[in-house]
Amino acid sequence: MRYHAIERTSPKGPGQPFIGTCWQCGMTGLKASDALKECENPANLTQDESVLRAIDPSAPKGNGEGK
Ligand SMILES: [Zn+2]
Question: With a threshold of 0.85, does the pTM exceed it?
Fold first, then answer.
């Protein structure tokens, strides 16, 4: 089992909530607490593949959203 690898996408600053995207499974809108939740990484991507997928909006998203 592995945890979400969340990269922060929200603005930093006092009172700003942590919102980020997991580069492993591509899930968006994750909070800091989600960093302790299991990442399904449905495509079993390597880090390089996941980064490419995270920055390419045309890439298909994982099916782990909404859980
Ligand atoms: Zn994840």
Answer: no
